[in-house]
Amino acid sequence: MRKNILAFIMLASVGVFAQEAKVNLKIKISGFKNNNGKVMVGLYDSEGTFLKKSLKGAKAKIEGNSAYVVFEGLTKGEYAFSLFHDENNNNELDKNFIGIPKEDYVASNNARGMMGPPKYNDAKFNLSQSKEIQIKF
Q: pLDDT tens digits, residue range 63-119?
């Protein structure tokens, strides 16, 4: 009886650890027109927060017209990201007087908006294991 209880506890704890396994996302970005400034990346996990409030953010130096960022310890699930080339290093996406971005930007899946920003449903992807995504401006 004791052995059965111990075996059950061990199996149950293995199941808990398996469910809590975290994954990493590495984003390799290429195609910058220069090495000025930095790249700013926002990671989102819902349509309601997409392009409004990121789950996590990162920034990286641009070298050789490319850069990469890593998000570690993510829960498996659905995500989207957006990034922009902060060429003048002011920590914001510069826009013209009618709101059109003046700095290069891109979203996951190369999602583009029609007469506005990209949509979450076009940018979302499933993260079920650690992976590397390559994206180009």
A: 999 999 999 999 999 999 999 999 999 999 999 999 889 999 999 999 988 888 999
Question: In one letter, which amino acid is 49?
Answer: T
Q: Which residues of 70-93 are buried (b: 16+ CB within 10 A; e: fewer)?
A: ebeebeeeebbbbbbbbbeeeeeb
Classify residue 52 as exposed, middle or buried by CB count within 10 Å of its CB (0-12, 13-18, 19+).
Answer: exposed
pLDDT of 118-128, one tens digit each? 999 999 999 99
In the block, which residue shows the tokens 């003048």?
88
The first and second tokens of residue 35, run together, are 């090495």
